[in-house]
Amino acid sequence: MDDLVIAGEKFSSRLIMGTGGAPSLEVLDQALVASGTGLTTVAMRRLDPAARGSVLDVLRRRDIKVLPNTAGCFTAGDAVLTARLAREALGTDWVKLEVIADERTLLPDPIETFDAAERLVADGFTVLPYIGDDPALARRLEQAGCAAVMPLGAPIGSGLGIRNPHSIELIVEAAGVPVILDAGIGTASDAALAMELGCDAVLLATAVTRAQRPDLMAAAMKGAVEAGRLARQAGRIPRRRYAEASSPVGP
Amino acid sequence: MKVTINGSAREVPHGTTVAQAVRTLTSATTGVAVAVNDEVVTRGTWETTALSDSDRVEVLTAVQGG
């Protein structure tokens, strides 16, 4: 499969993993290995002196690039501070910008997200914003200097798949930066569809970490992303209303 | 003087530095970042940055998420 390139950096896998929801670091480790991912998100939280082991150790051991997110932030100001703390703690200027509007839907707040994106780009960050499936906002964020756009398929953790494939296609058509389908993936066919629609990568966590067999689902997602990418490049046949014989007709 | 470290009120001596505040939670110096009153304090200045009364110190690290 061809490489994914974000801000000039190459990744051999087009599957980006999250780490939320795994029952243990051991299960997470097995799932990450099975997924083949080269880029994985973490969240920033208050240090717990009682915590044993760190997700950072897992990523370091597996040579997976860390992508800090700003999960839990409701305002641009919170997100900018969290990104700066992540840069200080992790030594990366990459950030998955996530500014949510409310706890019930966890849908991204477009106004705060755009405000934070502008400030972080100006501060030298490589910004990957999580957004709704909004082609106009995706375009504006690209113009503002974001390194990728990450439209949702469905609300975080919902497993509802891609609710509006048409909007995702519109975002892909217009984008000059990678489009990463983020949130809503429930199973392998959802990830394959994202790639068939033309997305450059898929980001998922819950679908794997809360599956009954996380390592098996991670392997399924790896295969699905690769299959979807190949199908996109191959060019699917047009949909037809009636049959078209594939064997010669007549005697 | 009174400061808040990760949401907990603490009584600390005058002149307590950011580095000393961090050491009350962890001996780690990598993978950790500090904000005092919502401003990042870079690691190189932890030893030389003294806290003031009522300061809010946040010590963060990466956890599973996203």
Quick overview:
By secondary structure, chain A is of the alpha/beta class. Chain A has helices at residues 25-35, 55-61, 76-90, 110-122, 135-143, 165-174, 188-196, 206-209, 214-234; strands spanning 4-6, 9-11, 15-17, 39-46, 65-68, 94-97, 126-131, 150-151, 180-182, 201-204.
**Integer average pLDDT of chain B:** 93
Strand-and-helix sequence of chain B, N→C?
A: EEHEEE
Quaternary class: heterodimer
Major sheet of chain A: order of its strands?
Answer: 3-10-9
Low-confidence stretches of chain B: none
Relative strand content of chain B: 35-45%
Percent helix of chain A, as a range, is: 25-40%
Architecture overview:
- The complex is a heterodimer of chains A (251) and B (66).
- With 251 residues, chain A is an alpha/beta fold.
- In chain A, 39% of the residues lie in helices and 16% in strands.
- Chain A is built from nine helices and ten strands.
- In chain A, strands 3-10-9 form a three-stranded parallel sheet. Chain A has a three-stranded parallel sheet with strand order 6-7-8.
- In chain A, helix 5 links the parallel strand 7 and strand 8.
- The longest helix of chain A has 21 residues.
- The model of chain A has no long low-confidence stretch (mean pLDDT 96).
- Chain B is mainly beta and 66 residues long.
- Chain B contains one helix and five strands.
- In chain B, strand 1 and strand 2 form a beta hairpin.
- Chain B starts with a strand and ends with a strand.
- At the A-B interface, strand 4, strand 5 and helix 3 of A face strand 3 and strand 5 of B.
- Strand 4 of chain A pairs antiparallel with strand 5 of chain B.
